[in-house]
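Bumping my old thread because nobody answered last time. Still need a sequence for this structure:
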């Protein structure tokens, strides 16, 4: 029988498309609360709109592979969402693959970034979002009875692109750019809480010069007992 896979929070569909292309006999369901961008999709991909914080139930269908990447750190009560994704979607013998970030591993390089981080942490706490979810995924999955063998790898991405591993340097630089873009958006959200335009400018300056910070991402995989 051909394999099937689902990717909750597929975003642009990057992983889904790569998986569908590499495994043309597999059926892959991409899921997001926003539509996919208008782009070519291999025929073995289908797409469904869903808010995975509310529903992760695709009929009775279970999947051989359930993959989600950089999604849980956006979502309130993400540990509950993770438990539901694992229990409802992974078939016995199937594989759960979760990749996510530990945003609190970023400590910044000066007062502006430290102030920014503390305000973001306060906002996340108020919204029930776990900034450190990446680091905690293995223990949440391990606590599920059906996933006894949880493996994970932590990878620290260097903002300066100056680490010993060239393959990670590009990712580190890209992560820093996403912090710069995300910082502008978050600064607007924090404005009513007193994060001023001047603070945002100082944070951005500090971030752009930051060649020291490391940000940890976690790759966790576990198979469900058959
Ligand atoms: C940072 S992007 C990651 C996209 C993709 N997984 C990747 O690695 O390229 C986060 C994605 O999660 C989706 N997302 C966030 N909260 C969601 C929710 N409650 N239900 C479904 N999708 C959600 C967003 O729409 C966005 O596409």
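Sorry it took so long. Here it is:
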């Amino acid at each position: 029988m051909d394999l099937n896979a689902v990717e909750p929070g597929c975003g642009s569909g990057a992983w889904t498309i790569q998986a569908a292309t590499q495994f043309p006999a597999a059926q892959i369901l991409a899921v997001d609360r926003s539509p996919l961008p208008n782009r070519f999709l291999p025929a073995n991909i289908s797409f469904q709109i869903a808010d995975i914080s509310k529903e992760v139930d695709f009929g009775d269908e279970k999947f051989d592979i359930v993959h989600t990447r950089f999604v849980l750190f956006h979502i309130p009560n993400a540990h509950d969402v993770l438990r539901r994704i694992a229990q409802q979607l992974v078939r016995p013998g199937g594989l759960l693959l979760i990749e996510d970030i530990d945003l609190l591993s970023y400590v910044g390089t000066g007062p502006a970034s430290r102030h920014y981080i503390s305000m973001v942490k306060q906002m996340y706490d108020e919204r029930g979002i776990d900034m450190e979810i990446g680091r905690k995924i293995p223990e949440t999955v391990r606590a599920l009875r059906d996933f006894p063998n949880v493996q994970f790898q932590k990878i620290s991405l260097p903002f300066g692109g100056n680490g010993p591993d060239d393959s990670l340097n590009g990712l580190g630089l890209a992560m820093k750019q996403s912090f710069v873009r995300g910082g502008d958006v978050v600064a607007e959200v924090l404005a009513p809480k007193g994060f001023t335009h001047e603070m945002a400018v100082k944070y951005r300056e500090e971030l752009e010069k930051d060649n020291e910070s490391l940000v940890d991402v976690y790759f966790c995989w576990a198979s469900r007992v058959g």
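The chain has one domain: 51-223. Let me know if any region looks off to you.
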